[in-house]
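Title: Prediction job returns without error message
Component: structure pipeline
Severity: low
Priority: P3
Assignee: unassigned

Description:
Job completed but the reporter wants confirmation the result is attached to the right record. Sequence as submitted:
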Amino acid sequence: MDDDFDDYLINFHVYLQESNRTPSLTDKAEIVDRQEMLSEIMEAAREYYDHVNAYDYQQFRKELLERGIRFTPVHYSATKAKWTKLFAQSVSKEERKRVHVEQHQWHLFSFELLDALIEDAARKAFDCCPKDTVYLFFQRRKEAYLVENAHLLKAEDLDHRFLPDPDIYLFSAEGKWTYIHTHEPNCGPYFYKCA
């Protein structure tokens, strides 16, 4: 698998290198030909990389199911609204707007409007907290789930690069805590427990 990713990076490197050489050409037809060929190379590499990621994600889901974790689809908008009501209500609408919570709810924590554990402390808190049933939703993927046997889910499970949306929100069914894994390597993860 690493060799496949290396091949993708080599193709990308070739694409960049050749793209930089193309403007020095004076033959317009050759420029067009090279750009079309480079686009085909990148499209094939992207398609391959997407295929590999999709396969890895399916294998990961299969592993979670075999572990005994169950995912039942639930209404996305209602789940996201429930999260907002539980965890963002104490922050004024003006403050939420100022930090663009409508784009990423985790801005409540990255802008320190709510006091949360971060990084390894957040991971440890998530791994240790009681969690039989939780809700999970993605930021952009418009999917939400009721997760049963969630005590079998660990913070490291959410670190996989092939997840379809790296912004993942989990919260206890009782609304006592939330754990958020973000797409930003230097933001989060966050664990917030209601007072």
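Comment from assignee: result matches the submitted record. The chain has six helices and seven strands.
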